[in-house]
Amino acid sequence: MEAKKKLFFVASNSKNIKYVENFLLKRNFEVLLDSDLDSSLSRIISLQPDFIFLPLDHANGRIVAMINAINSLTKGVTVLFVQNNTKESIRKLEYSKCPFKLYPPMSGPAVERLVLKTIKANATTTTTTEIKSKEANLEVFESNFSNVNVIENQSNIAFVQKGRRGELLKTKNQQLGTYQRKELSEQLRQELKTGFGDNVKMPIADLIETYYDNGPSAPAGPSTKNFQEASSSVDNYEARSSTYCLTIQSLTWCGYLIIHADFEIDFSLAKNVFQTWLASHLVELQEFTETDQFQISITNPDYQTFAKAEAEYIEVLSIYDKEVTVSFFSVDPQNLSIDLLELQHIGIPVQMIPTALALPLNAFVYLPLNQKFLLFALQNEKVDVTKLQRLSEKSIEKLYTPIEFEKEFRALRAEEFLNSLMKKLSKFAKK
User: Fold this and answer.
1) Is residue 172 part of a domain?
2) Rounded to whole angstroms, how far apart are CA atoms 241 and 265?
3) Opening angle at CA 68, ends 63 and 70, nearest 5
């Protein structure tokens, strides 16, 4: 009988991993837990686990030193994860160079899939020479580990300094200028469909199960309730649907990936699932940044019917007797670029300003003669129709918002695009 695979978890609070441990023990894995870095290091070297799970956002800053050196000390596979579902923690994980990562919420099934997939790919195979080399490094590392004053490697983490975002967007605009609008080919649709079943369906099901086990306001983490309890809890959120948008920019295809559910959930946690899926099929797919993903509001309550009529590609998942619709909408690459003013402000067409909902950003009128900005409306303010009429009377076709509101602008633009399609479909249906 094959020996049990050893899985070693380091965590600031091992209690949060207990539910994952219980699942893995039932699947015939040997699970080891520790929260102290010094004792963890000693045990890892002694036990030589097959997989070592290290939290990039551990409370002890020396975790970075441990991560940077662990590959030279053991023959096991290092897997990074984060314990906190914060933008900062997830950003650190996204830009780490470790090939094996687990994004929140961590769950037993997600760990099992990663382990089995890695074993199948022979990722744990290490030559005798490599092992000896690792052991030779151990003495030097242990003598320095307890005294390390860690400063995180900034080259691994994308922190954009203020003032540089405009330059980055300018470069992105230039790249979009080289792309052409293309529709999804039938071959690509079939490839996406196969990849969806293999790489997306189960992670999304895990995300929804964990989300409703914990509740929408609870921290991400594995479940303590059973599947049936989670299923019934969805009914509590039925009145509030969720529509999540990812901006797709690639040489193959540009547009919006829309994930819609008729219940409340945060799909941003699955961003990397979609990134991995699409990167296998789209040439030069641009990595999703924080401003490329956002929640949006749509006017049509029957989203699935709309998507079936207008989307180029659609998948419908049935989970907990509810349905999640994944759909693609082509957009001209030029319409995904950002209209920049002196790399500091974003131009907003006046017709994009909503009147039925609160404005999600600060909006200004630009006076080019004296290069000044006059406040038009504050974020969360509901814009009166008469204010927009006055702009029209003065032949003002564009407002501006500071570049800090890039994400809010992108969401507003995506909403305007989808809602206009819905209006056209509605008018056509009435004829």
Assistant:
1) no
2) 8
3) 85
